[in-house]
Amino acid sequence: MEKDIGPEQFPINEHYFGLVNFGNTCYCNSVLQALYFCRPFRENVLAYKAQQRKKENLLTCLADLFHSIATQKKKVGVIPPKKFISRLRKENDLFDNYMQQDAHEFLNYLLNTVADILQEEKRQEKQNGRLKGGEADDDDDDGPEPTWVHDIFQGTLTNETRCLNCETVSSKDEDFLDLSVDVEQNTSITHCLRDFSNTETLCSEYKYYCEMCCSKQEAQKRMRVKKLPMILALHLKRFKYMEQLHRYTKLSYRVVFPLELRLFNTSGDAVNLDRMYDLAAVVVHCGSGLRALQTPADDSPAPEGTLGPVRCRTDVELLSGPHVQNLNPTAASPRRSWPQNRAALPSPSDKRIHRGVSARVHLSLQGGPRLTRPVTRRLCLVCPWSDRVSVTLRRG
């Protein structure tokens, strides 16, 4: 694959390795690929590996996997994340089956688990008096100390509520590792974020209890971003519960992804208001149901200046238009059943919509068989039959 793509496309000291799919681990592999090419996250995981921890946990297994990729002699290849998957299934029954899981749920679980491990180890160090200088810190903290996971992904929301009777404004801060936003027809990420912070009126049975008025009053409520995270993770809520059908259904809406994003829904006391985010990774949930294939939107190696499995600004000229787009599937598109342990072969209609996505590169990175057809460099960032997309935006 390195010969086909060309050695000039591979930055020095960077490796592009696919992860073998063990039948139902597309959701996991996709998130791990995105996190590996998130440099702050990868550097901290590799630093954790260097500490030579003895007790095995999910973080040590992740560190071993990242270290294995980073120390490979070859530039490209495939690695089976056997140890990590085995540990994941031992620690959480949700992932201990042969069903496809949700990438967003896995991302949340992984980040929170890593943070919990780091906080517990810090607590143990305090108890054992192994802090710097050999002295234990006996102060009672209000809560666990933030970790490098929080430094990278955590932001803060401000929930502002204004009583329409006395005009008193109350606010409450809430930390987040990712933002879940609703989607509508023919919309964009920017529009989704704007809707996220739209003012909502609380009335009728949803009236707000005002402490100044000592009674329930009509009020206006809105969410604003108070602290912008270093890396912003967005989750598009593409599943909606339909009461008439008594089940969840997909929202196959077209959503436009800008390559650069600036948040405008910030609070008045927010800092770094001019912070720009660059699109770094997209994970797509493919299929018509809640359990389906999940894959990185582009499995090709990325040139210098990007964060890995998803091409960014350097390939703008190869895309059809100024934005990266989530194409809407046609109503006649058949439901796909994906063979285990290999990536799916695109249908003729998929090839047309994807406009030449390299199936050879895709299959190589997924651990499946190689195709012999030529590699095409033109890329489409997301699959046309996607149900759910998680977007990671790197701070510019």
From TrEMBL:
Give the classification, highest ranks.
Answer: Eukaryota, Metazoa, Chordata, Craniata, Vertebrata
Q: What does the similarity note say?
A: Belongs to the peptidase C19 family. USP12/USP46 subfamily.
Provide the protein name: Ubiquitin carboxyl-terminal hydrolase 46
InterPro entries, alphabetized: Papain-like_cys_pep_sf, Peptidase_C19, Peptidase_C19_UCH, USP, USP_CS
Region entry Disordered: which residue ranges?
Answer: 124-145, 323-351
**PROSITE patterns associated with the record:** USP_1 (PS00972), USP_3 (PS50235)
Name the Pfam families for this protein.
UCH
Q: Which domain of life is it from?
A: Eukaryota
Which species is this record about?
Scleropages formosus
